[in-house]
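From: lab user (bench 3)
To: helpdesk
Subject: output format question, protein + zinc ion

Hello, I'm new to running complex predictions and I'm not sure whether the block I got back is the full result or only part of it. Here's what I submitted:
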Amino acid sequence: MTSRLANKLFLDKVRKTPSMNVHELLTKVTEELKLDFSLKKGYRTLQKVRAAIEGSHEKQYELLEDFCGELRKANPGSTVFVETEVDDEGISRFKRLYMCLEPLKRGYLAGCRCWIGMDGCFLKGPYGGQLLTTVGMDADNKMYPLAIAVDLRISNSKNWCIMTDKQKGLVQAVRDKLPEAEHRCCAQHLYSNFKLNHRGLALKDRLWRCARASYMNQFIREMELLRQQSELAHQWLADKDPKTWSRSHFRAGMDCDILVNNMSPLSENFEILEKAKRDQSTCIASYAGTNRYRVSCPFGEQFVVDMAGKTCNCRKWQLRGIPCGHAAACINRRHEQPE
Ligand SMILES: [Zn+2]
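Helpdesk reply: Thanks, we reran it on our side. This is the complete output you should expect:
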């Protein structure tokens, strides 16, 4: 069998199943066509066939402009563009690409929180570069893909929360484009930097307690406990603006209190509510007039819940938009179900 015939044979199979590996391919060819093919020959042919189907990297870059044009045509209202620059030899080269499809924009505006998470990763392959992604969060705290790279027209950025890692470029871009938005930094990135010089489970636990503290007194208490454990670790953390990493300093009313960009550890609304229902059993609520309750908790802690304003001075209700354990105790006292 000539190698031309082999290429043609493989071409159809690989085109139909692009993920096919050489062993699967050889099995298929042997079974269907009763042909014997060596592994080495299989590899070489597969390589050629892949290049024929996908094209070289250079060829693919040349097609980008057309690809973006097709995307715009198929999804009117999308923002898709490629930027190129001319090098010393006068050749136009790829610089960056931005893509935000119209259906994703629409879905984001219709059903997501005023929260944007940004993350980046370095690309492997012959040209390197960086991929930046932005995600939103839907009502069920699930990730919602939004765009790659950033260019959002947000009229009132005061009500927005942007979360990024500590990359200088991103921090500056948010400051320039959305000066009024709340800018949080991913606490996981903060911890990654923290642990370079401050190791150990005890310190890790202390840092996360400071990040999770939802009101000022709790934050001060947790920072003091960290200081008692390590002056140096405390100094390192105290230098970071708590507005960017501790719940106690986050703006209320965002319906979102997450600390990290990777949302896997985040509980769903249902679970948060179930926890609040469990927590309330250790608290005692007493009516303090005009829809307010005083809630006494273990260790002598006291909180004030305002049922009309939907606030508690532990701030969790305002931060998440879901009742905290203290509020649940008040609702229970009123013989209502927290929903
Ligand atoms: Zn509370």
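A quick orientation on your result: Residues 303, 312, 314, 316, 324, 326-327 surround zinc ion (CB under 6 Å). Let us know if anything else is unclear.
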